[in-house]
Amino acid sequence: MVFSSFTFLLLFMPCVILLYWVMPSKARMPFLFAASLLFYGWGNPAWLLLLMYTMVLNWGGVQLMMRKGQRNKPLFIVLIILNLLPLMVFKYAGFLRDTWNQLLPWKLSFADLPLPAGISFFTFQAMSYLFDVYRGEAKVQKNFFTFGTYLALFPQLVAGPIVRYIDLEQQLIDHPRPNGEEMRQGLQRFAVGLGKKVLLADAMGRLWSQMNADFTQAGALGAWVGLLAFSFQIFFDFSGYSDMAIGLGHMMGFTIPENFDRPYRARTLTEFWRRWHMTLTDWFKAYVYIPLGGSRCSRVRRDFNLLVVWALTGLWHGAGWNFVLWGLYFAILLMLEKRFLLKNPAWEKIPGPVRQGLTFLGVMLGWALFSGFQGELLVAMFGAYGLGSAATATTCAAFLPLMLVCCGISFLPTPKRFPLRRFAAPVLMLLCLAALAAQGYAPFVYFQF
Amino acid sequence: MKKHFFRLPDGLAVALGLALLLAAGLFAAFWPQSDFSDFERRYLASAPSAPSLAKWKTDKEIESYLSDRIPFRRVMVGIDATANVFTGRRTQLETWPVAGAFLEKPVEGTVEGLNRRLTQLEKVAQKASAPWRLVVPTGHGYLLHGGMNALLQPLYEAERPLYDALAASDGYVRLGEDFNAATAYYATDHHWSLEGVYAAYTAYCESLGIAPLALDAFEITKFPGFYGTTYSRSGYPFAQADTLACAQPVTGVHLTILDDGSEYDSLIFPEHAETYDGYAVYLGGNHGLLEITNENAPERTLLVFKDSFANSLLPLLSAHYSRIVAMDARYYTGNFSDAIAAAGKVDQVLYVYSLDSLLNDTMVARKIGR
Predict the structure, then answer these.
(1) Sign of the dihedral defined by the CA atoms of residues A87, A91, A93, A98, in that order
(2) Which listed residue, of A26, A95, A359, B196, carries a Cα 20 to 30 Å from A401's Cα?
(3) Domain-located, residue A302
(4) Distances A52 to A93, A165, B58 between C-alpha atoms, Å
(5) Which of A177, A196, A230 corresponds to the end of one domain?
(6) What helix, strand, coil percent values describe chain A, rounded to 5?
(7) pLDDT value for B6
(8) Residues B227-240: what's their mean pLDDT?
(9) Using CB atoms and an 8 Å cut-off, which of residues 49-88 of chain B contact chain A?
């Protein structure tokens, strides 16, 4: 089930939240657990088996691993492998097969499996529990419903944020009940997220699709505007989902960590990655980068650690060499930035908006890689197909006002006061429902990760 | 201190908001509603079937069902279309609200493709052993494009090579100055108005050396409150209704729908004026094969291959032909040769197609070559 669907907005969400509010404290976690399973299994109940596998594996496995209060390292390694197994089978098998077939004369032949929604998200969440308990940062959770609710909590199950177990542990035990203020803030945040997704991301996605369809027609104008639209699509789609998840959490009394902090306002790439998909960055930092030695080691070793982390970050986003390259692109830029730019006083003297623009340009070119190996896009950007057709100009002009809205939200400081703020949530909800009624249902980009 | 005259407690306000959403969802899911939407001119999604329920393959079906039956759906679609127009994205709508009219998108196609089709038309006429004429209503957007802004203008201007190619064809009927942007079309529909069809009728007659009748020689019937297809396809709610005006010979006409054998003594069907498809007042809508006879007209037969534009033209032409046989490839089960055989001996062949139908209609493309 997706948030931007009538099934969710008109039936699931109001039913679950209203019932959750009136439910006795002890029944809340089992209820939320059952509701989350319904949410996940709605599109394809078979995927519930996979979720249950991850759930039982980590709930039971961690108890075994910590039996008698001793950490069992071999079992810890086995649990890591078993956690990664579904990811390898469902997400990376096809990629490995294609790579194998390109490099070696012996051909592998098997069909691609459908990718279960949110597999990367809940696998990483489960592993955070495993790591936190192993490192002694969290207690073993013996209550299956409590652990299951952590893993399956529907607001963040399929597209994040990736909530580390230690961040949610106490809240799951306390069975939170929101107050009126939290409920209002939650609904407002949800409406903002839905607006980002339905009104901005989907529209930008349509613009990108129209430009992407034929770069020979789109020309340089269409290629650049299209790539800008894709940059906005991916930001508003993903941050919109995170807003909705955080808002839904609020409405049920949970505090889900922030995932985005106006990333396109960053003035360096280092800052960008502190603001973009923060929970994933934290995850890799806590469980990969620091265990590898982090930055407290030789420069060569630090650079190696960065390359590993960024290659994995790329792979996490998708099973393709373009994603690996996208990760390595950032690794190299970050290394160069750390070495030559951040300590250079000349960089600081450049006006802030210019640094912001340059950083965004670096990110945007990264999205070109992210969108796939599109040679036509790159040559179109540099004028190989001319400026663009009349139809391209018309389409770009049509989206200009919305593009300016996207620019304003992405690049300008957030105003401290919003006039008529109280009416924002109902107006946004109405506009989103209208757009959904007109357009039908549009799945989230980030579900494929 | 700022004073609030009325403010619900936060929790109650949120609960009411959620209850409202739930009520809308329950209404959409369970309130009995018509399966057909007059506004959208389509059947709404049906409830999930038992087999799909059994296989739990229901998520998209349920979503479509709810989406089609959400309360105030028409208002919702209108809000979205209005938001599109006010944020500059009118060209993202299915049809474009421009200059008080609802325009179809510019026609896509190549001169080569059009020339191939013109050659096919000539061959069909040869099979019928009769001279041929082709009437293509110059598109509403193309007629208007000179007054459009610099961004929309080139999109319709791109149709010019296609019209130039048509003009180079021997059978093409050039529409005169009477066929103009101001009067030739309904504002809410893609079809031509009475003024437009009369201008086409006049041009056709003159191309054959026939003296056209004055408009007041026909019986004119008017039906106000007409909202056509381009209006409903756009979803944009703000438009003034058109008045359908229909002309037919005063006496002597007889219509036979050869698809089912039904017969009528009028070419105009007022009962359709109040329905969602008001344009069906002409000939009762679209039919695969029909025959119009006029006992007061000269003894000659016209074979027409057509789309819906001809529905308003045929009543005017029936004043000049004792027999007209008309085939619409979209609804006729046979091909063009079958229609020629069904018509028997004909004196004239006429093609009436919009530029889009001529270039892109798959049924025409499939049936013309056989």
Answers:
(1) negative
(2) A359
(3) no
(4) 21, 17, 22
(5) A177
(6) 75, 0, 25
(7) 61
(8) 88
(9) 56, 59-60, 62-64, 66-67, 70, 73, 75-81, 83, 87-88
| Cβ neighbourhood burial of B227 (10 Å; 0-12, 13-18, 19+) | buried
Rg (CA), chain A: 23
The Cβ of residue A285 has, within 10 Å, a number of other Cβ atoms equal to 14
**What range does the domain containing A354 cover?**
182-268+342-448
Q: Which residues pair with B98 in a beta bridge?
A: B101
Cβ–Cβ of B70/A6 closer than 8 Å?
Answer: yes
How many H helices and E strands in chain B?
14, 13
Q: A170 and A191 share a domain?
A: no
- pTM for the complete prediction? 0.84
B5 CB-near residues (< 8 Å, 6+ apart): none
Q: Which residues contact A186 (CB under 8 A, 6 or more apart)?
A: A178, A246, A247, A248, A249, A250, A251, A252, B14
Structure tokens at B21: 């959403």
Lowest mean pLDDT among A287-291, A381-385, B32-36: B32-36
Beta-bridge partner residues of B15: none
> A261 lies in a domain?
yes
How many structural domains are present in chain A? 2
Tokens of B351: 């093609």
Q: What is the mean pLDDT of residues B222-228?
A: 92
Whether A23 and A31 have beta carbons less than 8 Å apart is answered as yes
To which residue do tokens 């620091």 refer? Answer: A290
Q: Of the residues A177, A199, A223, which one is the last residue of a structural domain? A: A177
CA distance A213 to A245: 32
**Whether residue A61 is found in the same domain as residue A116:** yes
Angstrom CA distances, A334 to A158, A206, A331, A355, stand at 29, 32, 5, 15
Complex prediction ipTM? 0.84
Among A175, A250, A277, A317, which one carries the catalytic annotation? A317
**Angstroms from B239 CA to nearest CA on chain A:** 19
Q: Is residue B102 pLDDT above 50, yes or no? A: yes
Q: Which residues pair with B222 in a beta bridge?
A: B245
> Which residues in A lie closer than 8 A to residue B83 (C-beta atoms)?
431, 434-435
The more confident residue out of A85 and B88 is A85
Closest partner CB to A434 (pick from B13, B76, B87): B76
Region A233-258: mean pLDDT is 93
pLDDT at B60: 79
| B10 in Cβ contact with A251 (< 8 Å) | no
Answer yes or no: do A144 and A214 share one domain. no
Query: Would you say residue A435 lies in a domain?
Result: yes
- Is A175 part of the annotated catalytic residue set? no
Are residues A223 and A90 part of one domain? no
The rounded distance, in Å, linking the Cα atoms of A266 and A352 is: 9
Q: Is the pLDDT of residue B123 over 80?
A: yes
Do A41 and A111 belong to one domain?
Answer: yes
Distances (CA, A) of A316 to A311, A312, A326, A448: 9, 6, 11, 10
Whether A170 and A195 share a structural domain: no
Q: Are residues A391 and A437 in the same domain?
A: yes
- What residue type is B253 in one-letter code? V
* A251 and A264 in a common domain: yes
Residue at A191 is within a domain:
yes
* Mean pLDDT value across residues B69-96: 87
Kindly list the distances between the CA atom of residue B345 and the CA atoms of A208, A363, B133, B254, B339, in Å, as whole numbers in the listed order: 56, 72, 17, 19, 11
